[in-house]
Amino acid sequence: MTDPHPFIAGLPKAELHVHHVGSASPRIVAELAAHHPDSRVPTDPEALADYFTFTDFAHFIEVYLSVVDLIRTPEDVRLLTFEVARDMARQNIRYAELTVTPYSSTHRGIPEVAFMEAIEDARKAAEAELGVVLRWCFDIPGEAGLQAAEETARLAVERRPDGLVSFGLGGPEIGVERPQFKPYFDRAIAEGLHSVPHAGETTGPQTIWDALTVLRAERIGHGTSSVRDPRLLEHLAEHRIALEVCPTSNIATRAVTDIELHPIREMVAAGVLVTVNSDDPPMFGTDLNNEYAVAARLLELDERGIAELAKNAVEASFLDPAGKRKLAEEIDTYTTNWLRTPGR
Ligand SMILES: [Zn+2]
Fold first, then answer.
1. 165-194 pLDDT, tens digit each
2. Which of 72, 121, 227, 297 is 20 to 30 A from 38 in CA distance terms?
3. Could you tell me the distance, in angstroms and rounded to a whole number, from the CA of residue 341 to the centre of ligand 1?
4. How many domains does the chain have?
């Protein structure tokens, strides 16, 4: 297969690991910055493009936090969410589980009810106007400690929006042990939420075992270091526990030193259900289509192989069975039509 991009661009896709604030593209940031002229974020697109060119990981964190600082009102939350869905629609993403960190907004003073209304309002508009189905994963910002965990669990349970399907844990892994979050995951799981913590991105396989056995993870965010433990790979494959792989993000954060050495090949070879995702796409200079192209190259996939990768995400999603069937059929129909078209 020569250039996979045109096929990937039109392919209906689901995305399972993508962060709300981390999806703010320069276009969206410019719009938010225009509402808050006192912020230090540039508003004109060219200066913004420079601003988004990261020099190192510390710079990424600085930019990320400056975008967090632009989200000050429920209207900002609504705008960000709907515009993220617009960027998804352009890539033919039909379904996304968006990781939202409500704690970042509520502890900065956005009233919790208004926050929930803003994301729900955007979710309904995205589905009606853009054909993008959004669901939420509320995640604990691990670096903010147990008080943030308590607050996130409380918001998930007491202020649960209709679109909420899962409960996660992000932020740094080193020095932030997974087991301490057990009571909060227990509480969310008791309410019927799915467990999807980040694990094994910057730490070893034990963190993934902790996520599985203590936090009862149903999917693993990243799981990069799983390939260092054959027994773990076997366990993931046997129980169909999907990994949410984000290749470009792993390079940007130096979880993987060289894209050519990305462990996605070993994961697939071990029979693990691998899904491809974009994490914080504009901040890592990527989008989901590009991540599929990267994965297709590393795994040497043709169109059918790429379509299978897209169907892995549908299988590993928390869509209802009818929704899964419909999206998988859309992927099959698109692929069959593509391959039937003469001249390709
Ligand atoms: Zn992530």
1. 999 999 889 999 999 999 999 999 999 999
2. 121
3. 37
4. 1
